[in-house]
Design brief:
D-amino Acid Aminotransferase, Chain A, domain 2; alpha+beta; 2 domains; 299 residues; D-amino Acid Aminotransferase, Chain A, domain 1; 9-stranded mixed β-sheet
Length: 299
């Protein structure tokens, strides 16, 4: 193959030919459950956890489940093994899986049984995160609020992203280059469009217990904090705490940890040798076997 391959409903195809039908509810309504894992040293990292979260979400949201967790894990491992052969040694892959709610019965005369399940990879664009790692992520809390729990189960990772797009647009209008950190309808901190958010007060790490994705990168942070004996808690975080935080940072599967430098224009934290962010970053590197800072900054 001269290009990466993808997997659609059990069939391999060139990445350039991978497509979702226009009648699919993933296109028509953004009704798709998704996951993204990645490789470290060209090997999938915690792939089984990502696949299991996908399968659990499909079940809980009443979506079709045409493939088992084992079938998806095997298929994703095969796709990575094929596509990583084309990759330079210092590059890594993002691994995307998604499965849709079926087809729009109006378009197909009542037939809603055709779902689409896809696995594909892409080269992680480390250069996009270089500035954020060097200078820190700048966040704004826009007027847009997180989707309420009684409207939409935000604990699941889905493809319906319109409110995040609008929130990030508003944040960028307030301060160019910034990203949105959403509050919920009661004024508590939730998350960003792509990351789990953490705040540090007096050496204790806090992250939201309400209105957020069941974050797998967040679970890693909790594991590392426990190993380092850093106090960690999941709890409601009032927006007022953002004004007094000692540090803040975000986590995500593709990039790992990034420092937050400003929230609503206020500078926050420093990255000295005692910072919680640095301690957790070094522990993340030990866990994955990769120096994430070097990998990002050398791009």
């Amino acid at each position: 193959m001269t290009e990466p391959i993808a997997w659609i409903n059990g069939v391999h195809c060139p990445f350039s030919q991978a497509a979702v039908p226009v009648w699919d509810m993933g296109v028509v309504a953004g009704a798709a459950v998704t996951e993204m894992a990645r490789t470290y040293r060209h090997r999938p990292f915690r792939l089984e956890k990502h696949v299991q979260r996908l399968v659990n979400s499909l079940r809980e949201l009443n979506f079709p489940q045409p493939f088992s967790a084992n079938e998806l894990t095997v298929a994703a491992t095969e796709i990575v093994a094929q596509n990583v052969r084309r990759l330079p040694e210092d590059k890594e892959l993002g691994i995307v899986l998604f499965s849709t709610a079926g087809s729009n019965p109006t378009y197909l005369g009542g037939d809603s049984s055709r779902t689409t399940t896809v696995i594909h990879t892409f080269e992680l664009p480390f250069h996009l995160w270089k500035s954020s790692f060097e200078n820190g992520v700048r966040l704004q809390t826009p007027s847009m609020r997180q989707i309420p729990a009684d409207c939409f189960p935000v604990t699941h990772k889905v493809r319906n992203r319109l409110h995040w797009i609008l929130a990030d647009q508003e944040a960028s209008r307030i301060e160019p280059g910034s990203k949105a950190l959403l509050l919920d309808s009661d004024g508590f901190v939730t998350e960003t469009s792509t990351s789990c958010f953490f705040v540090v007060h007096d050496g204790k790490v806090g992250t939201s217990s309400r209105g957020v994705l069941k974050s797998l990168s967040g679970e890693i942070v909790e594991e590392l904090a426990a190993a380092l004996k850093i106090p960690f808690e999941r709890r409601p975080i009032p927006a007022a705490e953002l004004e007094t935080a000692d540090e803040a940072f975000v986590s995500s599967t593709p990039v790992g940890l990034l420092p937050v430098s400003h929230i609503n224009g206020r500078q926050i934290g420093t990255r000295d040798s005692k910072s919680i962010f640095l301690q957790l970053s070094l522990a993340w590197n030990s866990l994955t076997g990769i120096d994430s800072a070097r990998q990002i900054l050398q791009t």
